[in-house]
Amino acid sequence: MQETSTKPYLLRALYEWCTDNGYTPHIAVRVDNQTRVPRQFVRDNEIVLNISFEATSQLQMGNEWIEFSARFSGKSHKIEVPISNVLAIYARENGQGMAFPVESAGGEALDSGADAELAEEAESPAAPVGAAPRAVAAPPAPDAATSKADNADDGPQPDDDGSKGGGRGHLKIVK
What we know:
Largest sheet: 6 strands, antiparallel
Strand order of the largest sheet: 2-1-6-7-8-9
Structural class: alpha+beta
Shape: globular
């Protein structure tokens, strides 16, 4: 019998740690053809989801899938994320959490404006498969219900370093 991955157990443990401490748990997800999320909120094949009790309904964190219902721009959506596609889980308030190695499964769902360079990046893993998870600190990310798509007319927001990167959060490795 094949050994069960530790990833779903770590995700559930960090979710519980966030909620026990009054933090808002978020997951960063690599979006591919198996992932069921509202595509209009996907940027660079990734989406950040608020998985707090207040933001979700019927949250189930199994060993293979994370499933729940959530509202995006006032409309309810059924969300289904394979555990293998979860890139990180962290607390919105302080960025503490854990990042996981990218597991390439193919079938990337590219944005309509994606070019060959983005496709190459999606195919080359950032960390070897099977590598140990890393602790991370990340800046606060938007709630699913208050995505950047709602504020598209505001134009690009500066990143923490002042560059015009669209105001998108970046994970930072802490050793």
